[in-house]
Amino acid sequence: MKILSALATAGLLVMAGNAAASSFIGTTDTIGSSLANSVEGTSDASTGGNNKVVLQARDDAASFVASNGAIRGVQLEAALQHLRAQQPGLEASDMQLAEDILAQ
C-alpha cells in the first residue's frame, strides 16, 4: 500500500510540475509576443521605405541614445519631424524612434 501511495504522490507531483512549466511558458510567450508587436509598430514607423532623412540620422540617433536624450543632433531632429509628419498618429517617444533608427 505504501508503494501505491508513493507512486500516486509522485504522479501528482509530476503533473503539477508540468502544469506550472506550461503556465510559465504560456505567460512568457504572451509577454514576448506583445513586446514584439510593440517593437514592430515603431519599426514600421521609421522604416518608411528606408528614406534618406532617416538613414542619415543614425549617428545622431546613437549620440541621443547613448546620452539618454541629452544630445539632440540636427539630423535626428529632422528625421523625427519627418517621421511624425508621415504618421501624425504616431505615439512613439523620441527615444523609441531613435532606438529604432539605430536598429535599421
TrEMBL record:
Q: Which UniProt keywords apply?
A: ATP-binding, Helicase, Hydrolase, Nucleotide-binding, Signal
- Does the keyword section mention Endoplasmic reticulum? no
- Renumbered to this chain, the signal peptide range is 1-21
Which species is this UniProt entry from?
Halopseudomonas pachastrellae
This entry's Gene Ontology molecular function terms read: helicase activity
What name has this protein been given in UniProt? Holliday junction resolvasome, helicase subunit
